UniProtKB/TrEMBL annotation:
Annotated PTS EIIB type-1 domain residues: 7-89
Localization, UniProt: Cell membrane
Membrane topology field: Multi-pass membrane protein
PROSITE patterns reported for this sequence: PTS_EIIB_TYPE_1, PTS_EIIB_TYPE_1_CYS, PTS_EIIC_TYPE_1
Keyword Transcription regulation: no
Domain called PTS EIIC type-1: residue spans: 171-523
Name the UniProt record assigns to this protein: PTS transporter subunit EIIC
Keyword Kinase listed: yes
Protein's organism: Streptomyces yunnanensis
Entry annotation: catalytic residues: C29 (phosphocysteine intermediate)
Pfam families: PTS_EIIB, PTS_EIIC
Length: 556
């Protein structure tokens, strides 16, 4: 039955993204189905967002459909199976209509709300007719539609600004690590379970096996990073893995560089990334210059030989020093100024995401996990999502009469609690302006709380990257008892929720905004005794990103 549900979800998604001919690549991370799209105009965003299984849409270098953890891993194989099936729709639903046919009703949030209202009215029966709304049907979703359009405009503009060589390079670096997240999560959870068994003294015969299972991937992660790096930068993937394998080979301990004996694993993922990137560039040069008759012999040999020598006598030492500096700096920063550092990291993380600079943190997270067994930065950064959830809850309470925005918030909150913040950011808080700022303040206080405990000696880390919010609980690890670490993380989330809620409730909306967003467009605002004539609603801020004013100066 479950398989049928996921198969039905995939079958519904395919025509809405333009059909099989419009999909060039398929992949998934922890929560998102990532699609390469040939013709963007064939994708029906509104119809996708109207599907109950779709939690949000994210457009980056790929078109990403947020389905949630667990669901996406089951829908993706069904989607891939449909792409290769002879019965797969080759084009979108819109292309199957013929001239003269009645236009198919577009599935939108407005239609969805209308259908729900009509269904409720039918259930009420003729004896209990539903009260007639004073708001015209077309107005019920005006605010949400305007916010969605405004958020899409802001996002597109920010995406264009982020298309710089440095940011595009960082995005490609992130693409190297995203496929590794499932293994990091799986091994991280097993490591946590193994720690519980070890501390409790249970199943001692099983503990060594679990240790091998949890640590095996991390001991060879450099090889996987090398493989993905070469693949991402246009080289032969297995050659990237081959040169990265030099780093973890035990015999490297017999090599001396810069007067020091090398250690297996020295340089870690940073050394593997650099080695595979060099190998990809050298391979391209050899392919251009080596005669075709000798290419199959000379190109791989020269690529592995030259890159291997550079790795052994240069890159391993250099990357090892950088990795050591990253670990030392992280420990010093949180040990001496944890509260302030956490406040800044939690508060500035979402602006970093908008600027595209958060991609640079992924190799840092992975390096810390490889060195210490967990990254102390991720739980702090996860507080940014808590601030967004708190802000959304405050808007839900404040805008009691705006059914459209409340519907958007209700649909996006489950994903927000699981750490997927884009639907709330681009659908609600960012277009409104101030709520995005107050959400960042909530994230800052949550990060400061977790950072303070790091400063006091209670380190809170994560054994994997990717999850956030509630989804991070199974991966939480620290230097004290697991119960203490989980409690600190949970309290940090609560602080983020509370401050994000309070800040947004009291300061997130101006009086005029509350009046405009809560009142029907056709209901004139009454004048109280002694009150001057009410000014006309300021509609210039709705649907006009430029009118957001100073709130976003410096963000992008």
């Amino acid at each position: 039955m479950t398989a049928d549900k996921h198969r039905a979800t995939a079958a519904t998604l395919l025509p809405l993204v333009g059909g099989a001919d419009n999909v060039t690549s398929v992949a998934h991370c922890m929560t998102r189905l990532r699609l390469g799209i040939r013709d963007r105009s064939l994708v029906q965003d509104a119809a996708l967002m109207a599907l109950p299984s779709v939690l949000g849409l994210v457009e980056d270098d790929t078109y990403q459909i947020v389905l949630g953890p667990g669901t996406v891993a089951r829908v993706t194989p069904e989607f891939e199976r449909l792409l290769t099936s002879p019965d797969a729709p080759a084009t979108s639903l819109a292309d199957t209509q013929h001239p003269g046919d009645a236009p198919q009703e577009q599935i939108t949030l407005r239609n969805r709300c209308r259908n729900k209202e009509e269904g409720s009215a039918r259930q009420a029966g003729p004896q209990n007719p539903a009260p007639q709304s004073t708001t015209p049907p077309t107005e019920i979703t005006t605010a949400a539609a305007d916010l969605a359009a405004q958020g899409a405009t802001l996002k597109a503009r920010q995406k264009a600004r982020n298309a710089t060589p440095v940011k595009l390079f960082l995005r490609r670096v992130a693409n190297i690590f995203v496929p590794l997240i499932p293994a990091l999560i799986g091994c991280g959870v097993i490591a946590g379970l193994n720690g519980l068994l070890t501390n409790a003294g249970w199943l001692p015969a099983l503990v060594p096996a679990l240790t091998a299972i949890a640590s095996g991937f991390m001991s060879l992660i450099a090889v996987f990073v090398g493989y993905n790096t070469a693949k991402e930068f246009g080289g032969t993937p297995v050659l990237g893995g081959a040169v990265a394998a030099v780093i973890v080979f035990p015999g490297i301990a017999n090599v001396t560089a810069f007067g020091q004996k090398l250690a297996p694993g020295q340089g870690g993922v940073l050394g593997a990334l650099a080695a595979a990137l060099l190998a990809a560039q050298l391979e391209k040069q050899f392919r251009r210059r080596v005669p075709e008759a000798l290419d199959v012999l000379l190109t791989p040999t020269l690529t592995v030989l030259l890159t291997g020598l550079v790795t052994a006598f240069g890159l391993m030492y250099a990357a090892g020093e950088v990795s050591l500096a990253i670990g030392t700096a992280s420990n010093w920063l949180l040990g001496h100024g944890g509260a302030l550092a956490g406040f800044l990291l939690g508060g500035l993380f979402l602006p970093l995401v908008m600027l595209g600079l958060h991609q640079a943190l992924i190799p840092i997270h992975t390096t810390l996990i490889q060195q210490q067994g967990y990254t102390t930065l991720l739980p702090i950064l996860a507080m940014a999502g808590a601030g967004q959830v708190g802000a959304a809850l405050a808007l839900y309470v404040r805008l009691r009469r705006n059914h459209s925005i409340r519907t958007t918030i209700r649909s996006a909150l489950p994903a927000g609690f699981l750490g997927v913040g884009e639907p709330l950011i681009y659908g609600v808080s960012l277009p409104l302006g101030r709520p995005f700022i107050t959400a960042c303040v909530g994230g800052a206080f949550g990060g400061g709380f977790v950072g303070l405990f790091n400063q006091l000696g209670d380190a809170v880390g994560s054994t994997a990257i990717g999850p956030s919010g509630f989804a991070l609980f199974p991966l939480v690890k620290g230097n004290h008892a697991l119960g203490t670490t989980i409690t600190v993380y949970a309290l940090g989330l609560l602080v983020g929720y509370a401050v994000g809620f309070a800040g947004t409730y009291f300061f997130g909306l101006s009086r005029q905004q509350r009046a405009d967003l809560n009142a029907p467009h056709d209901a004139p605002r009454t004048r109280g005794e002694g009150e001057a004539d009410a000014p006309a609603p300021d509609t210039s801020r709705v649907g006009n990103p430029e009118a957001l004013g100073p709130a976003f100066e410096g963000v992008g």
